[in-house]
Every structure is written in C-alpha cells, then in structure tokens.
Write a structure and sequence with these properties.
The complex is a heterodimer of chains A (468) and B (169).
Chain A lengths: L3 H27 L9 E7 L3 E3 L2 E3 L3 E8 L3 H28 L9 H17 L4 H62 L5 H17 L2 E6 L2 E6 L4 E4 L2 E2 L2 E5 L5 E5 L2 E2 L7 H36 L34 H4 L22 H8 L11 H41 L3 H39 L1
Antiparallel strand pairs in A: 1-4, 2-3, 5-6, 6-7, 7-8, 9-10, 10-11
Helix pairs in contact in A: 1-10, 2-5, 2-6, 2-9, 3-4, 3-8, 3-9, 4-5, 4-6, 5-6, 6-8, 6-9
Chain B lengths: L5 H12 L3 H27 L3 H21 L30 H39 L12 H13 L4
Classes of the chains: A alpha+beta (468), B mainly alpha (169).
Chain lengths: 468, 169
C-alpha cells in the first residue's frame, strides 16, 4: 500500500504541474497581441507508477514539455504566397511606373507621330511654304525628343531597379545571418530538452520576411533547418549563413552570385524576383519595341526623303543632279544599331531641304504625299507607326494589369492563409480563460489533497504520541 | 388601312420590332454588371475552395457570356487569345460601341475594364487553387503514387474509351 508521504508527493506533483500549466496560459495571454507568436500548450503526462505487489500506484503528474502549436504545411503555403505577393507587388509597381511614360499626353510618342504626319499633310497642300516646312521640322524634332525622353525614362527606371537589387540582396544577407543565429539558439535549447518556442517564432518571422524577398525553400532537420533558394543555392545551413554577392556586368547592371555562381536568372520569385523580372525582361522588351518603332519610322521617312527633291530642285538622294555621288540629305539621322529611340535626332535644320517635291519643281507635292502615306503603311513589323505604338501601349498596359491581378490574388490567398494560421496558432482569450479556470481548480484540488494528507499525518502523529 | 408600299411597311414593322441602340446598350450594361458580380462570387468560392460555388458561378458566367455575345456585333468579338500579345486589328477595336451615347459608351468601357480585371483575377486565383489541390492530392497520395502534375484528362478519357472497346470495365 502506498504511504501518506507518497500521496503527498503525488499531490505536490499536481501543484507543480498546474503551476507550470498556469504559467503557459499566462504567457499566452501576455502575448495575445505579439506578431508571429504561436500559442503554447502544456504537455502533461502521468508519472511512472510504482508497483507494490499486487497493486500498482500512480506517482502523480509531470509537466513534460510546453509545445508551440504550428501547422508546417500551412507555414509552407504562407511562404509560397508571400513570395508570389512580393514578386507581383514589385512587378506591378514597376510596370505602373513604366505605364506613365505611355499615358496619352501632348508629349507622348503617339501624339508626336500623329502631329508629324499631320504637318507633312499640311505641307503637301502648299509645298513651297517655308513656315509649313518649318512646322514639319519642329514636329520631327518633337518625335525625336519624345522617343529620347521615353527611352531615357526607361533607362533611369532600369537603373533605379538595379539599385533595388543591391538593397534587397543586402536585406537577404542580414536576414540569413539572423536566421543562422536563431538556429543556434533553438538548437542549444532543444539539445537540453528546453522549450525553444519563442526563438522558433522569431525564426519563422524572419523566414516570412525572407520569403517576401526571395524564393526560398525550408528543409527542416534535427533541431535546426536549412534554407535554399529555388535553384538550390544555400542561404542558411544550420548555424552557418551563406552571403549572396553582387557584381556589375558589362551592361552596368548587378548580377547576383552565390558561392561564385551567377544565380540571377534563377531567382524568379519574391521581391528580388519581381525586380529582376522588371529590370531584365519587361523593360528591355519595351526598349526593344521602342527601338524597332524608332528605327522603322526613321528609316522609312529617310527612304522617301532621299527619293525626292528639295525646295531648290536639288535631289536629296545619294546622287546629285549632275550624276555625281553626294551625301544623302536625311530628315532623321540614320538610327544607330542599338538605342535607336534614345539617339533619334533630326538631321537637318534648313526647312528648304525637306524633299516635298517628286519631280524637282517647287510646286510638286508628290514626295510629301508619299511621306504622308507612310502613316497608314505597314512599315514596322507589318504595322503602321501608330498601330505599332498602340501595340506597345497595349502590351505595357496588359502586363501591368496582369501583374496587378496576380498581386491581388496572392494578397487574398495570403490573407486567408494568415487567418487560418491565426485560428491554429493564434491566442484565443476565451480558450485561455477556460484553461485558467481548469488549472486553478486543479491546483486548488491538489492543495486540498495536501491539506487532507496533512490532517491524516497529524492524526497519525497524534496516535503515535498517545501510544507513546 | 392598307399601306401604299408593302415593302416599306414590312421594313417599318421590322424596325419597330428591333430593339433600339440605347436598349441594346442598357442590356449589355446590365449583363456586364451581372457578369462582374458573378465573377466576384466566383472569386469568393475559389478562395474558400467551395466546389459547388465554383461550379454555380462558372455556369452563370458561361450563360451570361453567351447572352452578352448575342449583343456584340459579329466581327468585333475578341478571339480571346491570351498568349498572343499583339493588339487586335483596328476594325475589331470598336467593340460594338457604334450608335452609343458618349456617356453610355464610357460606362460600357468601364464595365468591360472591370470584367476584364475580374477575369484576370479569376485566372490568377484558379491557378493558385489548382496548385493547392495538386499539393493536397500529392499529400493524400500513398507511397505507390508517383508525384507530379496530374495526367491530362483527355489522355485519361482516351485510355478509358480504349478500355471500354476492349471489353473491360
């Protein structure tokens, strides 16, 4: 039969366990508003029984551990959506900024091209009018400057995105260092059987922040975890973090290196992925389309210009009236192989050099009409200049709207997942209040048992005294 | 009273029977709003992975899309080629706005923009739901099931029909 002292020890274990459980509840209540905190639960187990043949007696309760409540699958889904949200928010923001260059205004390329062809149309009504000729030169200058402004703006945006790449890599390095330190703290505590919940929560928050920056995969291991990018470049392995480096390439843009390998093209998600997508894919694609338009327009206009005669009846082509070779009189300077939009410029300042005439007479407007006809001819990739420009505007708008829709979708899914996480890992004050009452009652009952045993012991001592 | 010219009378009757441009525009606007609301309901269903809701809203959208197509003149409908980034030809860009009052046209364009954006969001949410379901399917799959994207339904149907012709169940 169990002794009174053994019963006292059992009751005492109850007091200690309930005290620990109460401390867990207190900590949960205190952290009800702490971001990233996961509620904790005490794990109570019955102590090993003692066998006093033929009976077996329990020896009370032990507070085995305090566990944080987490859903690893949900955490993984949150990380994925955080990455997508980060990517599309950065991309949408960059594309919306790009879109402002193509908003219809007095200085936009579309308006400048329309005004240019209108001025040629006007010139064709009176080809010898110098003011109308000057109008064509002014409109051509406006076309060139609108191309230059847009191309410069795109280059500036690309440079600014490049700066963001460097900043984001710096943030990633800071976070991976922090995660490696937290790995050490978690590992140290778990190795001695202590609850590392607080550090795990802090680490999870850092991983969430890292996920918004770059596509990261989490591989849990014993008491620690490993973080790698989607392409397998290590970021954190246990207690060691691996820094990403940036190096400038031949175009003056920063490439990202991990352990000496260029991983720039392999980063596809997170804010860094979005920034790289805008810098290396979206903006260059728009630049290429603009260059094609500028090149096609300038080349076509120059072709017609060099096929006519200026106001003085001189041919503007490569052969003079006497049949000797001469430098052709272009309207636009022949575009460079690269950067046609950024370098587009008007080649002449003398309005009389515009080749409006097709036969050398001052009153002829044949060449001006041929130049005006270019406005409706498929001269750039099978499209007219205005249709080609509309196509660029359409593509930019379409990409921006798609990125915006993707961002909204990610935000909505992420919100839903965060709500789910809060319902699993968040602190419910109602539940904690119920737990508090439960532990309080259990503590009181254990105390009552101790009082009863105390009385019994007193009675035993009294009996012994009387007997003595 | 007998009309002087039977063909004129027939034309008049036909004109009276046909809805006016403003009536057509109003109907289009109404359908567009209903489509937008249905798409919003679809978004909620997709987020909650409410299969019945997804099916209901998809049926609604198909029906509304069919009704809407009846009001859009032939030759102005988009081919719906998401992969083709080229702008539709100029003659298709009027979108059947001819004969609309400017304010009605503006409202129609706004409605179209809203529906288009809601459709983009629907596409993005569908892709996420599909991904989530694939992850769940992989999680539920036993060790004997190979992981990866599900086989195409057409391939499965073809194999099913082959099995049927072979006489097996």
């Amino acid at each position: 039969m169990s002794s009174l002292n053994a019963s006292l020890a059992s009751a005492l274990s109850g007091l200690i366990a309930d005290q620990g459980a109460m401390a867990t509840t207190t900590n949960n209540v205190a952290n009800v508003n702490t971001p990233g905190y996961s509620r904790q639960e005490p794990v109570l187990v019955a102590s090993d029984p003692v066998v006093l043949s033929p009976l077996t007696f329990g020896t009370g309760v032990t507070l085995q551990s305090v566990e944080s409540i987490r859903d690893p699958i949900l955490e993984s889904q949150i990380q994925q959506q955080t990455q997508a949200e980060g990517q599309y928010s950065t991309l949408a923001s960059a594309l919306q900024q790009t879109q402002t260059n193509f908003t219809a205004s007095t200085g936009d390329i579309g308006t400048a091209i329309s005004n240019f062809f209108d001025s040629i149309n006007q010139l064709s009504t009176n080809p010898s009018d110098l003011s109308l000729r000057q109008g064509v030169l002014t409109a051509a200058g406006n076309v060139a400057s609108s191309f230059n402004t847009t191309a410069d703006s795109l280059t500036q945006q690309q440079t600014s995105l490049d700066l963001s790449v460097v900043q984001q890599v710096g943030q990633i390095n800071q976070l991976t260092q922090q995660i490696a330190q937290l790995n050490t703290q978690v590992s140290n505590l778990q190795n001695v059987g202590e609850n590392a919940g607080t550090f795990i929560d802090q680490r999870q928050q850092a991983i969430d922040q890292l996920s918004s920056l770059v596509d990261v995969s989490v591989i849990p291991s014993d008491n620690s975890l490993t973080l790698i990018t989607a392409n397998g470049a290590p970021l954190v392995t246990g207690q060691q973090s691996f820094q990403l480096q940036t190096q400038t390439n031949s175009a003056g843009l920063h490439e990202i290196y991990s352990q000496g390998n260029d991983i720039t093209s392999q980063i596809t998600s997170g804010q860094l992925g979005g920034t790289l997508q805008a810098r290396d894919q979206e903006i260059p694609a728009i630049q290429t389309q603009l260059n094609t338009l500028a090149d096609g327009l300038a080349t076509s206009v120059n072709k017609v210009q060099t096929a006519g005669y200026d106001l003085n009846g001189n041919p503007t082509g490569a052969t003079s009236a006497s049949g000797t070779p001469q430098t052709p009189v272009y309207l636009f300077n022949p575009p460079a192989a690269t950067g046609a939009a950024a370098n587009l410029s008007v080649a002449i300042t003398d309005p009389s050099l515009i080749a409006a005439s097709s036969d050398g007479t001052a009153g002829s407007n044949g060449n001006a009409e041929a130049m005006y006809a270019l406005s409706n001819q498929a001269i750039i990739d099978g499209q007219s200049p205005t249709d080609c420009y509309s196509g660029i505007v359409f593509n930019v708008g379409n990409s921006a709207s798609n990125a915006s829709a993707e961002q909204t979708a990610s935000s909505q899914v992420l919100q839903q997942l965060n709500d789910q996480r809060a319902s699993i890992s968040g602190v419910s004050l109602d539940e904690e209040a119920a737990n508090m009452v439960r532990y309080q009652n259990a503590y009181s009952a254990s105390a009552q048992v101790i009082t009863a045993i105390n009385d019994m012991l007193y009675a035993t001592i009294q009996m012994t005294t009387l007997t003595g | 009273m007998i009309p002087d010219d039977p063909s004129n009378a027939a034309t008049q009757l036909l004109t009276d029977a046909l809805p006016s441009a403003s009536e057509i525009t109003r109907s289009r606007l109404l359908l567009m709003r209903q489509l937008y609301m249905s798409l919003c309901a679809g978004h909620r269903a997709l987020l909650a992975l409410d299969l019945a809701g997804i099916e209901r809203s998809t049926m609604d959208q198909a029906e509304l899309g069919r009704k809407l197509a009846e009001y859009i003149p032939r030759g102005t409908r988009s081919a719906g080629n998401a992969g083709n980034k080229k702008r539709p030809p100029a003659e298709n860009r009027a979108g059947g706005f001819a004969g609309c009052a400017p304010e009605m046209e503006a409202e129609l364009r706004r409605g179209e923009r809203d529906v288009l954006q809601a459709l983009r969001l629907q596409g993005a949410l569908l892709a996420r739901s599909q991904h989530k379901l694939r992850v769940m399917a992989n999680m539920l799959a036993g060790p004997g099931v190979s992981y990866g994207p599900p086989s195409r339904p057409t391939a499965r149907l073809q194999s099913a029909s082959r099995s049927k012709t072979a006489g097996s169940i």
